[in-house]
Amino acid sequence: MSPETNQARHDRDSVARSALALLDEVGLADLSMRRIAARLEVQPSALYWHFSSKQELLAELADRITSSIRPGTADVLTTARSIRDALFAYRDGAELVLSTYALQLGSSHAQSVLAEALQASGATEAADRAAAILHFVLGHATLVQQRMHADSHGALPRADEIDVTAGLDRVFDLGVTALSGALTAPATPPRARA
What we know:
The chain has 9 helices and no strands.
């Protein structure tokens, strides 16, 4: 039986698991349907039984990357850190989640968890703040992963050995804290001066 006609030995879950493992090995730029199919020993067309497009597969991978984020267990900063850590758990995880989020594909699990943490802390405009914080987390994590990737290939100019991520945890915490701002609205509006 040819690999293309043997669809039964793979399902949506096994394709996604193989794609995540391959993402860790080769990175997002080299994660192709052809390469995933070769890993599974099927023809590329066999993958389309489970995913209608590569973008749909990437959205599934983004959902799997962010699924480890648990709702309702932490404050806003801890929640943002857990999102960042989930993105860092996979090579190019931040870039993958950012690209699917930009195209409005996949779930909004990470944003929902942030909104819950903001609401629990009494934040006004929790949904909008959650979106702003998630944008920051995605951008920051992408920057860190790109910097680490460039450093691993010797592409960063430097005079001597330095930690390319030094100080970035502090920057991350400051950014999330600044975007969280004053979480609740003032109890009474300030009086206008006469």
